[in-house]
Every structure is written in structure tokens, then in C-alpha cells.
Description:
Layout: H1 10-29, H2 35-41, H3 52-75, H4 77-96, H5 101-129, H6 132-146, H7 148-163, H8 166-187, H9 202-214, H10 216-246, H11 253-274, H12 280-304, H13 311-337, H14 344-368, H15 375-399
Helix pairs in contact: 1-5, 1-6, 1-7, 1-8, 3-4, 3-5, 3-10, 3-14, 4-5, 4-8, 5-14, 6-11, 6-13, 7-11, 9-14, 10-13, 10-14, 10-15, 11-13, 12-13, 12-15
Amino acid sequence: MTKxxxxxxxxxxxxxxxxxxxxxxxxxxxxxxxLGQISxxxxxxxxxxxxxxxxxxxxxxxxxxxxxxxFADSFGRKTAIYLGVFIFLVGTLVAVFATTLKIMLIGRxxxxxxxxxxxxxxxxxxxxxxxxxxxxxxxxxxxxxxxxVPALAPLLGQGILLFSxxxxxFWFILIFALVSVTWMHFxxxxxLSPLNKRVFSIRLIISGIVDIVKxxxxxxxxxxxxxxxxxxxxxxxxxQQILAVQYGLGMMFPVYFGILALAYGVSSFLNxxxxxxxxxxxxxxxSLILQVVISILFLGLSIAADGNLNFTAFFIYMLxxxxxxxxxxxxxxxxxxxxFGHMAGLATSVISAIQTLTAVLVGGLIGQMYDGTVExxxxxxxxxxxxxxxxxxTLQRHKS
Length: 400
């Protein structure tokens, strides 16, 4: 048998990892323009209930990531992705043929459970190849490519709705997942070293979880990123209500949504360059302080306007806000994973599970507080920002 030859360079590696990680993002953001149509077709009475079409996929992810890391440590990174994508495709088909909100949420949760493999195992593959500052740089570059998907996904979803129904969006997502995993199959070699292969057993998994949770630094950065990610989840869940309905953007909603996503991508790219000069901690601290200052300023403006902040002010706030968030997730993941190179798969699973479950709880709480004004969202971002900053400063003080 002819041995497969891999000629993967760094740029292609970044694109493949970004596409795999984008499967979840596409599943979320491409559906946002369709939430109104889904609500009508599935006879959903409470407008806020439709937010769970977005949030439920994160709930599935939070449980899925616990499986794929240990599985990848035992049976290989690529095998874990194959399993996850198969489950994701099953969930996609359930959602396509959903006739009630309950069935839709089940399909979305299965999608999340499956797509968790792409998220957690992609990060594991990156950790296999890089660490520390270099890993943070690669993560930032991947996030720069990755962000193009959520930037364009709502526009794509809106375009599909012009010619078809929301079910067609799910079919497109299914094809995207198949293309991405096929590219990875032929171009990315297995990165699990035989020396790092671990037996798949509940006892070892629990032991590994205890080791990670007992590491105060890793747990701290995990909770910090989960809380901040929760604010982002609340925005995703309410974006259609805020931009398309409250501000009446209509067909222009995907354009403004995409511009905000691009701000996040530009910030991630800038982070990869700044890491050549500044430490991860310096960049993260500056980003958090700026995010908190901006949030309290615009929260004051919103209160002064009785919650009726005009669109221009809200859009400027979100641009600055997303720019501040860009460096945080890649940097915090790198810091949380730093001590666990010998068990990267399990560590990524536990860290991602805690991050995502925290984000679902925080984001769901903020999202359900939406009252037709943007004040709860801005207040949520401020609360998450100040909490994350306090955790970060405590970790730095403890390290010193």
C-alpha cells in the first residue's frame, strides 16, 4: 500500500482548523435571520423562547466536549472528528424535519453534541503542534479566518431565505460539514503521539478531571473565558430581536451583524502581531480594562435614555466591545491549557465543557432579560467584563 504523503503547510493548516471550528459558528449564525420564520412555522408564542434555537446548540456542546477529548486521546484526533461530524449530521436532519419547537431544540442539541468534536479536537490538534505564545498566535490567526464564517453566515442565511425556506439553510450546513471533514481527512495527518495515547476508561477520565479542576490557574482562566463567552451567547441569542426587529434593520441586519464579526476578526489578527512584542497577560489585561470602561460608559448613556439607546450608539458600542473581546478567548485558552500538554485532549474537553456550560447559563440568563431595549445586554456585558477582570487580576496576583 502506498503511504499517504502530507504536504500541509501552516496556512493550509490554519484554514482547515478554522473551517472545522466554523461548523458550529455556521450552524448558529446562518440560522439567526430565519428565527422569525422558524417561530411562525413552529407556532412559537413567546418571542424570547426562540432564543433557545441558538442557546440549545451550546448546551449540546457543553456535554459533547466531555466525550471527544478523552476519545481523541485514546483513538486518535481524526477518528474523534469523524464520530462527531456523523452525530452532527444526524442532528441536522432532525432539525430539518422538525415540526415543533421541542423537536427543533432536540435536533439543535444533537448538532451541538456532534460539532463539539470539531471544536475540542481542533484545539487539541493545535496544542499537539504548538504551545504557549506560538499557540496563542496560531489561535489568533485561526480566529481571523474563522470569523469570516459568522461574518458572512447571516448574509448567506438571508440570501437562502430569498429563494427557499429555513430548511435549505440546514442542508447547506450539512454540505459544509462534509466538505470540511473530507479536506481534513486527505490533508491533515494524525497528531496523537503513541507515547501520549491513553486508555479510554472512566477512572482515568475522572482522575484527569480532578487534576485539571485542582489547578487554580487553569480553572480560573476557564471560568473567566466562560463568563465572557456568556455575554457573547446572549448577544447571539438576541441579535435578530435587537437588530432586525427593535432597530428595524430588516434585510440589512446580516450586513451590520457581519461588520461586528469582522471587528472581532481584526482584533484577533492584531493580537497575533502584538504577541511578538507583549505578553499574553499584558494584552488580555488591557483588553479587559478597555471593555469594562466602554461598557460602563454606554450603560450610563442607555440609562440616561431610559433604555432607548439609538442604533448608532449601540452599534459603536458593539464595535468597540467586539474589538476588546477578540484577543481574550484565544489567549485564555492558551493559558488554561499550558500545564496540560501531556493530556491535551482530556484537558481541552474539561476546559471547553466548563467554559460552554458557564456561557449557556450566563448567556441564557441575560438573554431572557431582554425587554425590548438593549440595556440588559449592555449591563450583561459590563457585569461579565468586571467579573472576568477581577478573576484575571486575582490570578495574576496569585502568580506573583
